Amino acid sequence: MSNPSPVPDYQVVSLIVIGVIVMLLLAGAIVLFVTFYQKRMVEARLKQQMLESQFQQKVLEATLDSQESERSRVAGDLHDSIGGMLSAVRIGLSAIGRQLNDTHVLDAQKQMLDDTIESVRKISRELMPATLEKFGLIPAVRELCEKMQATTQIQIGIMELGEARRIDNRRQLMVYRITQELLNNAFKHSKATYIEVVFNFRENLYLIVEDNGIGMDRKHMEESGRKSLGLFNIQSRVQLLSATVTIDHEKRDGSKITISVPYEQKA
Amino acid sequence: MSERETFWLEVLNWVQTSLILVGVVTFVITPKQGKRDYAELGIILALTFLTEFSMTILWYTSHTTVNLAYSIFNLTTLPLFVLLYRRRMTWVNKDTIAALIIVPFLLFGLINLFFVQGVTKFNSYTIAFSSVAFIVISISYFFILIRELPTESITKLPMFWINSAILIFSSGTFVIYLSADYLANVINNNMIGTWFVHNFVGLIYYAILWRALLLVRSGHAKEVK
Q: Are B36 and B225 in contact (CB under 8 A)?
C-alpha cells in the first residue's frame, strides 16, 4: 500500500514518541511538584501550629507569672502595711488600757484585734508562703499539710523518697500550687479520712497525692475539667512544667494522682 | 513487522498482562474493607486482565484483533474511575460533576462506536476523549489534595498513587491515541513503534497501580473521604 504522507513514517513515529516523552515528563513533573509542594505546605502548617502553641504557652506563662506576682504583692502589702498598722493600733490600745481603770471593754477589743492580725498573717502566708522561699518545697508543703490537717481534721501524711534535688524557684512554686490545689480538691470532694502526699525524687520529681475517699469518676472528671478553675490551674501549670499527669482509674478505694515533673524546663 | 519487533512487542505485552494479573491477585488478597473502598479499581483490573488476555490468546490462535471487546472495555474504564474519585470527593455537587463527565463520554463513545469509527475499528477517538478527561480529573484531584491536605504525607494515600498512575498513563498515551487513526488509516503505519511505547507506559501505569494496591492491602493509609 502506498504512503500518501509527505513525511516519512519513521519521522511521524519519532514525532509521536517525542510527544509521548514530553507528555510523560510533564505528568512526572506535576506528580513531583505535588509531592514536594504538599511537603512544604505540611511543614508550613506544622510550623504555624508550633508558633501558635508557643504563643499560647507564653500567654499562659505570663498570666500565671502575673498572678503569682500579684499574690506576692498583696501578701507583702497585707503583712507589711495592714499587718504593721494593725500592730501599731494594738500597741496604742495597750497604752490607752494602761491609763484606764476598767480595761474590761478594751480587752475584748484587743482580742478582736489580735484575731484580725492573725487572720491577716494567715491570708498573707497562704498567698505567698515564706517557708517556700526560705526553706524550699518540702518544708513548705509540710507546713501546708499541717495547717490543713489542723483545720479539716483529716490526717495527712507526707513522705519524701530518694535524694532531694534542687528545682528552680519558679518551678518549685508551681509544684507547690499544684499540691495545694490537689489537696484542696481532696478536701472538697473526696470525703477521705486520710491523704498521703509523696515526693519521689527519681529521674523526674514524682508528686503523688493519694487518698482513701470515694474516688474519681472519669466521666465526671472530664465534664468538671472543662468547668473547674482548680483543674484548669493544675492543667496550666502541668503544661508549663512540661509535666505529665497520671490518674489511677483502676484504684478501687479512693484516688491516686501522679504528676511527673522534669527538674528542668525542656527546650 | 520484523520478527524481532514482534518478539519484543509480545514480551512487553506478556509482562504487562502479568503485571495486571499481579494487581488482580493483590486485590483479591486485600482485606474486605480495602476491597470495599477500592471496588471500582478491582473491577477495572479484572476487566483489563480479561480483555488483554483474551485479545492475546485470540491473536495467537487466529491472528485477529477484537476491536469491539476493546472498545466496550474502554467505555467502562472512565465511568468506573469517575465513581472511584466521586467517593473521595468532599464536594457537595460531586454527583453532578460525575454525571457531567460520564454521560457525555458514554454518548460520544457510543456514537463513535456505531456511527463514526465503527465496531470493527479501533475506537481511538473515544480513548483520546477519555485520556483528556483523565488528565483533567487527575490534575483537579491533585489540586484538591494540596488544598485539603488530608494527611501529613500524601504518598501514603493509595489514591495519590492511583491518581499519579492515571495522570502518567493518560498523558503518555494521549498522543498515541490522538495519532492512531492517522497512523493506521492514512499512512498505513504498522504502529509497532507506537504500541511498543504504549505498552512501556502501560508497564509504568500498572506498576504504580500495584503500589497503590499494596498500600490499600497493608492498610497504611487512612483515607479522608
A: no
If one counts the domains in chain B, the total is: 1
| Radius of gyration in angstroms for the set of CA atoms belonging to chain B, rounded to a whole number | 18
Q: How many CB atoms lie within 10 A of CB B113?
A: 21
pLDDT of residue B225: 41
Q: Is residue B68 part of a domain?
A: yes
Pairing mode, if any, of strands A194-201 and A244-247? Answer: unpaired
B98 and B86 Cβ atoms separated by less than 8 Å = yes
**Cβ of B175 under 8 Å from any chain A Cβ?**
yes
Distances B159 to A28, A87, B87 between C-alpha atoms, Å: 16, 80, 11
Residue range(s) defining the domain that contains residue B66: 3-219
What SS3 class is residue B150? coil
Transcribe B64-89 into DSSP letters: ---HHHHHHHHHHHHHHHHHHHHTT-
B-proximal residues of A, 20-79, CB under 8 Å: 20, 23-24, 26-28, 30-31, 34-35, 37-39, 41-42, 45
What's the pTM?
0.67
- Mean pLDDT for the stretch of residues A123-131: 81
Interface check for A105 against chain B (CB to CB < 8 A): the answer is: no
Q: How far apart are CA A215 and CA A221, in angstroms?
A: 11
Examine residue B141 and state whether it is found in any structural domain, yes or no: yes
Q: Where are the alpha helices (DSSP H) in chain B?
A: 3-28, 32-37, 39-62, 67-86, 94-111, 124-148, 158-181, 192-218
B224 in a domain, yes or no? no
Residue A51 has pLDDT above 80, yes or no: yes
A227 pLDDT band, cuts 50/70/90, is low
The three cell numbers locating residue A15: 514525532
Angstrom distance (rounded) from CA A23 to CA A30 = 11
**Is B98 a member of any domain?**
yes
Convert the pLDDT of each residue in B3-26 to its tens digit.
777 788 788 888 888 989 999 999
Query: What are the residues whose beta carbons fall under 8 Å from the beta carbon of A238, sequence distance 6 or more?
Result: A178, A244, A245, A259
Nearest CA in chain B to A4: B187
Residue B30 has pLDDT above 90, yes or no: no
Does B92 lie at the interface with A, CB-CB under 8 angstroms? Answer: no
A122: CB partners within 8 A, 6+ apart: none
Q: CA A186, CA A166: separation in Å to the nearest integer?
A: 27
The CATH number linked to B43 is 1.20.1070
Please list every residue in chain A whose beta carbon sits closer than 8 Å to the beta carbon of residue B154: 34-35, 38
